[in-house]
Amino acid sequence: MSRTQRDCFQFVMFIELFLLYFFQNSEGERKKSFGEIISEDFQRRYASNVIELANINRDLNEHLRNIQEFTQQVTKVLKAKFLSFFRSMSLLNNYGTFKSHLVAR
């Protein structure tokens, strides 16, 4: 599995866990508002999902930092290459202008 596939898979897992957490939270709020007893099993599953979400969130933040570092590195390289390219084009254009000016005389 490539890194991109793994990242996408992890993101999908995060979304699934988030939705599960959201529905469990809604269920917990409903039970609480109606004065129903919240079972230990529900509390354990809820706590487990919160911990898993926190872990995935940490991993996603790490991936985001890596992407930001990578884009900064690529930007530096591209900037240097573009500057070099435009400088060389400018010199060629100036040389062509200079040469045509000499030939015209």
Structure description:
The protein has 105 residues and is an all-alpha fold. It has one domain (3-104). The protein contains two helices and no strands. It is rod-shaped and about 85 Å long. The protein starts with a helix and ends with a helix. The mean pLDDT is 78.
What is the element layout, followed by pairings?
Blueprint (H helix, E strand, L loop, with lengths): L2 H31 L6 H65 L1
Summarize the structure.
The protein is an all-alpha fold.
Radius of gyration: 29 Å
Residue ranges: pLDDT <50 for 5 or more in a row?
Answer: none
Largest sheet: none
Percent helix, as a range, is over 70%
What brief labels describe this structure?
single chain; 105 residues; mainly alpha
